[in-house]
Amino acid sequence: MSRAVEESNRAMLRARDAMDRAYAEPLDVPALARIAHVSAAHFIRTFRATFGETPHRYLQRRRVERAMYLLVQTDHPVTEICHLVGFGSLGTFSRTFHGIVGESPSTYRRRRAAAVAVPSCFTKAWMRPSGAAG
Amino acid sequence: MTMTSISRSQIYVLDQDEALDFYVGKLGLEVNTDQDLGFMRWLTVNVPGDPEHEILLEKPGPPALDPATAERVRELLTKGAMSGWLCLTTDDARKAHEDLVAKGVDITDEPTERPYGIDFGIRDPFGNRIRIGQMHPRA
C-alpha cells in the first residue's frame, strides 16, 4: 500500500514540476495527466489529495507568482508579462491576478520594492500566493 | 570556537542502489564510501576530486525511525516536501543541463541567468531538489 502511495506521490510531483517549469506553455489537464500516467479525472482527484489544491489552481498561482516576479524584476509592460507567464488574454490575467493577490498588476508593481536575489526554487516555492483563487 | 567546514550532509533516498545509479551514473558524482555496517549501509558520494565534502544517501527505516514514521518520511519525500536540497556548482551550466536532459533526468527549472550566475533545477528520482549552477565569483 505505502509503495503505491509513494509512486503516486512521485508521479504527481512530476506533473507539478512540469507546471513549475513550463507554466508559460498552454498546459492542460490531459497533458499533465499524461505526464503522471493517469486519466484526467484520476489526475485532478489525486493531485488535490496529494497537494491540497486542484492542478488548475496550482497552475494559476504559479503563473501569478511568476507575473509578480516579472512585475518587480523587469520593465516589461503588463500585457507582455500576461503572455510570458502563459495567460491567453489580458482580461483573464487581470481578473485572476486581482482575485489571488488582492490588487491589480500595475498597483502591485508600483508598491513592491526590488527583492533580494535568492535561488529561484525558493522564491517560486514561497512566493506562489495562497489567497483566494480567481 | 570556529567551525571550519560543512564536511558531511545527508539526504534521504528510497533505494540506495537507485541512488547510486542517479548520483554516480547520471550526475557523475563519485562514491566516497559504500560500506555495510550491519545496522546500516553507509553510502556517501562526493563531487569528483572533493572527498572532503560527503553527502550521505540514507534510507529511512527502522530502527532509526519507527515504521510508521519512516512511511511518513517516504510519503513526504516523494511529494517533494522532505526538504532534501543540494546545490552543486559546474563550469558550464548549459552543457550540464543538455547532458542531464539527454539522460532523462527530471528538469524542474530551465537554465536561467541570475544575479549570482546561471543555474537550473532538477529533481532526483525520489523527490529531492538539486540545483546546478555556474556561479559568478563571490565579491
Helix content of chain B: 10-25%
CATH homologous superfamily (4th level) name of the largest domain in chain A: Homeodomain-like
Tell me the count of domains of chain B.
Answer: 1
Largest sheet of chain A: none
The most extensive interface between chains reads: A-B, 20 and 27 residues
Low-confidence blocks of residues of chain A:
none
By secondary-structure content and strand pairing, the structural class of chain A works out as mainly alpha
Assembly category: heterodimer
How far apart the termini of chain A lie comes to 36 Å
Calculate Rg of chain A over CA atoms.
Answer: 16 Å
CATH topology of chain B: 2,3-Dihydroxybiphenyl 1,2-Dioxygenase, domain 1
CATH topology of the largest domain in chain A: Arc Repressor Mutant, subunit A
Element order, helices and strands of chain A?
HHHHHHHH
CATH class bucket of chain B: Alpha Beta
Number of DSSP helical runs of chain A = 8
Order of helices and strands of chain B: EHEEEHEHEEE
Key terms for this structure?
heterodimer, A: 134 residues, mainly alpha, Arc Repressor Mutant, subunit A, 8 helices, B: 139 residues, alpha/beta, 2,3-Dihydroxybiphenyl 1,2-Dioxygenase, domain 1, four-stranded mixed β-sheet, 3 helices
Brief write-up:
The complex is a heterodimer of chains A (134) and B (139). With 134 residues, chain A is mainly alpha-helical. Chain A contains eight helices and no strands.
Descriptive overview:
The complex is a heterodimer of chains A (134) and B (139). By secondary structure, chain A is mainly α. Chain A has 2 domains: 2-56; 59-126, Orthogonal Bundle (Arc Repressor Mutant, subunit A). Chain A has helices at 2-22, 29-35, 40-51, 55-73, 78-84, 90-101, 105-111, 120-126. In chain A, helix 2 packs across helix 3 and helix 4 (55-73) crosses helix 7. Chain A is elongated. Chain A starts with a helix and ends in an 8-residue tail after the last helix. In chain B, the strands form 2 sheets. Chain B has a 4-stranded mixed sheet with strand order 1-4-3-2, covered by helices on one side. Chain B is globular and about 45 Å long. Chain A binds chain B through residues 2, 5-7, 9-10, 12-14, 16-17, 20-21, 50-51, 117, 119-121, 124, and chain B through 14, 71, 74-75, 77-80, 87, 106-110, 112, 114-116, 119, 121, 123, 125-127, 129, 131, 133.
